[in-house]
Design a protein that fits this description.
The protein is 71% helix and 0% strand. It has helices at residues 2-24, 29-52, 59-83, 89-112. The chain is mainly α. Helix 1 (2-24) runs antiparallel to helix 4 and helix 3 (59-83) runs antiparallel to helix 4.
Length: 135
Protein backbone atom coordinates (compact mmCIF):
# COMPACT_ATOMS: atom_id res chain seq x y z
CA UNK A 1 0.00 0.00 0.00
CA UNK A 2 2.79 2.42 0.87
CA UNK A 3 4.52 1.74 -2.46
CA UNK A 4 1.32 2.50 -4.41
CA UNK A 5 0.78 5.64 -2.30
CA UNK A 6 4.32 6.78 -3.08
CA UNK A 7 3.83 6.12 -6.81
CA UNK A 8 0.55 8.05 -6.93
CA UNK A 9 2.06 10.71 -4.67
CA UNK A 10 5.01 11.15 -7.02
CA UNK A 11 2.66 11.58 -9.97
CA UNK A 12 0.47 14.01 -8.03
CA UNK A 13 3.57 15.90 -6.89
CA UNK A 14 4.84 16.10 -10.46
CA UNK A 15 1.44 17.40 -11.57
CA UNK A 16 1.53 20.05 -8.80
CA UNK A 17 5.09 21.06 -9.63
CA UNK A 18 4.59 21.34 -13.39
CA UNK A 19 1.23 23.15 -13.18
CA UNK A 20 2.38 25.55 -10.44
CA UNK A 21 5.61 26.47 -12.17
CA UNK A 22 3.98 26.81 -15.59
CA UNK A 23 1.27 29.08 -14.20
CA UNK A 24 3.81 31.08 -12.17
CA UNK A 25 5.15 32.35 -15.49
CA UNK A 26 1.78 33.94 -16.33
CA UNK A 27 0.11 34.75 -13.02
CA UNK A 28 1.00 35.31 -9.38
CA UNK A 29 2.65 32.66 -7.26
CA UNK A 30 -0.33 32.37 -4.90
CA UNK A 31 -2.67 31.56 -7.78
CA UNK A 32 -0.06 29.20 -9.25
CA UNK A 33 0.22 27.36 -5.91
CA UNK A 34 -3.58 27.13 -5.62
CA UNK A 35 -4.05 25.81 -9.16
CA UNK A 36 -1.16 23.36 -8.78
CA UNK A 37 -2.73 22.00 -5.60
CA UNK A 38 -6.22 21.82 -7.12
CA UNK A 39 -5.05 19.93 -10.22
CA UNK A 40 -2.93 17.58 -8.15
CA UNK A 41 -5.75 16.85 -5.72
CA UNK A 42 -8.36 16.03 -8.33
CA UNK A 43 -5.98 13.45 -9.74
CA UNK A 44 -4.86 12.32 -6.28
CA UNK A 45 -8.36 11.77 -4.84
CA UNK A 46 -9.37 9.15 -7.37
CA UNK A 47 -5.92 7.59 -7.77
CA UNK A 48 -5.29 7.26 -4.02
CA UNK A 49 -8.79 5.92 -3.34
CA UNK A 50 -8.79 3.28 -6.06
CA UNK A 51 -5.14 2.44 -6.71
CA UNK A 52 -3.21 3.19 -3.51
CA UNK A 53 -5.72 2.34 -0.79
CA UNK A 54 -8.12 0.19 -2.84
CA UNK A 55 -11.25 1.25 -0.99
CA UNK A 56 -14.86 1.41 -2.11
CA UNK A 57 -15.84 4.94 -2.99
CA UNK A 58 -17.91 6.51 -0.20
CA UNK A 59 -17.88 10.02 -1.60
CA UNK A 60 -20.32 11.34 1.01
CA UNK A 61 -17.71 10.61 3.69
CA UNK A 62 -14.39 10.58 1.86
CA UNK A 63 -14.81 13.63 -0.35
CA UNK A 64 -15.51 16.06 2.53
CA UNK A 65 -12.53 14.64 4.40
CA UNK A 66 -10.37 14.93 1.30
CA UNK A 67 -11.52 18.52 0.80
CA UNK A 68 -10.61 19.27 4.44
CA UNK A 69 -7.16 17.81 3.77
CA UNK A 70 -6.94 19.89 0.57
CA UNK A 71 -7.74 23.01 2.61
CA UNK A 72 -5.07 22.15 5.17
CA UNK A 73 -2.48 21.60 2.46
CA UNK A 74 -3.59 24.74 0.64
CA UNK A 75 -3.10 26.86 3.79
CA UNK A 76 0.24 25.17 4.41
CA UNK A 77 1.32 25.91 0.81
CA UNK A 78 0.27 29.54 1.08
CA UNK A 79 2.19 29.93 4.36
CA UNK A 80 5.33 28.40 2.85
CA UNK A 81 4.89 30.61 -0.23
CA UNK A 82 4.54 33.70 2.01
CA UNK A 83 7.64 32.93 4.07
CA UNK A 84 9.60 31.90 0.97
CA UNK A 85 9.04 35.15 -0.94
CA UNK A 86 12.74 36.00 -0.86
CA UNK A 87 13.61 32.66 -2.49
CA UNK A 88 13.10 31.38 -6.01
CA UNK A 89 9.57 30.07 -6.50
CA UNK A 90 11.06 26.90 -7.98
CA UNK A 91 12.67 26.20 -4.59
CA UNK A 92 9.54 27.19 -2.65
CA UNK A 93 7.30 24.90 -4.70
CA UNK A 94 9.86 22.10 -4.35
CA UNK A 95 9.78 22.55 -0.57
CA UNK A 96 5.98 22.32 -0.61
CA UNK A 97 6.00 19.31 -2.92
CA UNK A 98 8.50 17.36 -0.81
CA UNK A 99 7.09 18.18 2.62
CA UNK A 100 3.35 17.65 2.08
CA UNK A 101 3.54 13.81 1.96
CA UNK A 102 4.98 13.76 5.49
CA UNK A 103 1.59 14.63 6.98
CA UNK A 104 -0.64 13.79 4.03
CA UNK A 105 -0.03 10.03 4.03
CA UNK A 106 -1.08 9.34 7.62
CA UNK A 107 -4.14 11.55 7.26
CA UNK A 108 -5.20 9.81 4.04
CA UNK A 109 -4.46 6.32 5.30
CA UNK A 110 -6.12 6.55 8.68
CA UNK A 111 -8.80 9.20 8.18
CA UNK A 112 -9.72 10.18 4.60
CA UNK A 113 -9.75 6.71 3.03
CA UNK A 114 -10.54 4.72 6.16
CA UNK A 115 -13.07 2.01 5.33
CA UNK A 116 -16.55 3.19 6.22
CA UNK A 117 -18.94 0.69 7.79
CA UNK A 118 -21.89 -0.36 5.68
CA UNK A 119 -25.43 -1.49 6.38
CA UNK A 120 -24.52 -5.20 6.25
CA UNK A 121 -22.85 -5.10 9.66
CA UNK A 122 -25.14 -6.15 12.48
CA UNK A 123 -25.02 -4.85 16.04
CA UNK A 124 -23.13 -8.01 17.04
CA UNK A 125 -20.39 -7.31 14.50
CA UNK A 126 -21.21 -10.20 12.15
CA UNK A 127 -21.91 -9.76 8.46
CA UNK A 128 -24.68 -11.18 6.32
CA UNK A 129 -23.51 -11.45 2.73
CA UNK A 130 -26.73 -12.84 1.32
CA UNK A 131 -30.13 -14.17 2.32
CA UNK A 132 -28.84 -17.75 1.90
CA UNK A 133 -26.46 -17.21 4.84
CA UNK A 134 -29.42 -16.37 7.05
CA UNK A 135 -31.49 -19.53 6.30
Amino acid sequence: MLTRYILVGCLATAIFYVVANALALFCGTYIATFMGNLTSFVFGYFAQMKFAFGVQAKHSVMLPRYIALLCLIFVYGQIVTFFGQSFSYVLVSLCIALSVPLFSYPLQRFWVFKEVGDSKTSLGGGEIDSLKDNI
